[in-house]
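yo

u said u wanted the structure for the complex thing, so here. seqs first:
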Amino acid sequence: MSEVALAARGLNKKFGSLVVASDINLVLPEGARYALIGPNGAGKTTLINLLTGMLPPDSGEIVLAEQDITAQAPQERVRRGLARTFQINSLFPGLSALEAVTLVVEERRRLSGRFWQNLASHKESIEEAYDILSRLRLGDSCYQPTRELPYGRQRLLEIALALATRPKVLLLDEPAAGVPQDESGEVFEAVAGLSGDLTLLFIEHDMHVVFRFASHIIVLVGGAIFAEGSPADIAAHPGVREVYLGTRQHG
Amino acid sequence: MSVAKPATTDPQIWLNARSRWHRLEICFWLATLLPFLLFPNYLSLASQIAITALFALSLDIILGYGGVVSLGHAAFFGVGAYAAGLYSVHVTGEPLSGLAVGGVLAGVAGYAASFIVSRFRHLTLIMITLGIGLLAHEVANKAHWLTGGSDGLQGVKTLPLFGLFKFDLYGNVAYAYSLGVLFLAFLGVRRIVNSPFGLSLRGIRENLIRMPAVGADSRAHIRTAYTIAATLAGIAGAILAQTTQTVALESISFQRSADVLVMLVLGGAGRLYGGLIGAALFMVARDQFSGIAPQYWYFWIGLLLVTVVMFLPNGILGGLSQLYARWRVK
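structre next:
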């Protein structure tokens, strides 16, 4: 269990004079469920962008399952088992949910270059895609174009696309963002239902959700790790209450 | 209005149904045979339409399905035309091997260009493809010793098809040949857009940013699509060279790149039949209007283009399929 799934060492990133990541060290053990919290503009999404290769770091290194992936393109990292979801839906509006997830499965199975075969004959991929959608309770709406799906279902499709890459490490950027609170449970139940050996790092603002699902919490402030520890540690941390929990309660 | 499908639909059956032949498609292909009976005097025009339709179909792969814009697609049409023409002048006038030579050389040119094209989007991409098209045109113009420049390539001879069917003055064989190649190419493209690769191509069109985040190498896909599109464009060019027995500089011009884009947008990009319908409409309109006022016929095309893109953003076919869907719901 103590194997490290994903680690970052000394990550730095600046936009001009604005420091968005400052000497970030991070270790995610296999099967861990970490929450990443912090005020707006703390650099949470930037950290996910750095880890997944959407932004190159100025310095530092990223290690996935003991392999240095710092120089790898995003799609290479995905193929090695590092997937993410987006805070703002980044879906395929004109494709049905079934097509979108099948696309991802085909990419993972390296069958997407086969321009001479009929997609409908790729039974295994289609069934796998349908299975993922069913597990997220999207089975009955998987034939509709994505743009016609209700927002909550689109959020679930965000997760379905990431799951179809069969990740070992999954980074969720506010999976329930914009979902009404009474429905956000559904999104997080889906997250909780993910298999136990999947390593998870999620950004979330709702502290009830964070304390319920996270085994470990990292607090990011101004691009640097301000505190980290078990939910109990963080809840008792005087500084965290002040910079994050405190301001939120007043705001 | 979308109709909710029953929850029991099997996903494989649903996907399969999307690639099945529609009755209207069969009607469409039967209708392409009508010119032999109804318009025997217009078979040369019909042949030109089939060639242009194949050219538009090739653009649809990259533009309609992959979302990769091109203003220089005539470069590959021209490479195919000159390759087939020169092959006829210097090697043999046998048409099928000439067709292969035109397709392969255009495909190689497309593959080379794809390494640049796949790296850019939007305005940059438009300018790059425009530049490639202009470069190709000037090279063909300057290489007078090889291509005949603005005089056109002379001395192209085409031997009988399969050694049996002589290319006649009325265009019977020319149209049969163009139509046959168009149909085979269409079958190929139809398979491609219904393949896993076609799905990924649509993914690139729908959301390029998401593709790397799901493990897809979009650039590799675009390179493949571009090579296939250039090959088909080259085949179209080769048929034009063989059936008209000359290669005009016009076949590699910017005008041709612009025209094919207009046809595809008029007909409806991203629909297999958009380029075919657009090409037929454009060519017939040109034939009719240029009879009335040869200088000004682009006025009418301009008017049609503005009207269509304003009121039918998915082209004429897009509008028709919307009507059809509404009618079926009723």
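Chain A touches chain B through 53 residues (CB under 8 Å). The beta strands of chain A are 4-15, 18-29, 33-37, 59-64, 67-68, 82-84, 169-173, 199-203, 216-221, 224-229.
cya
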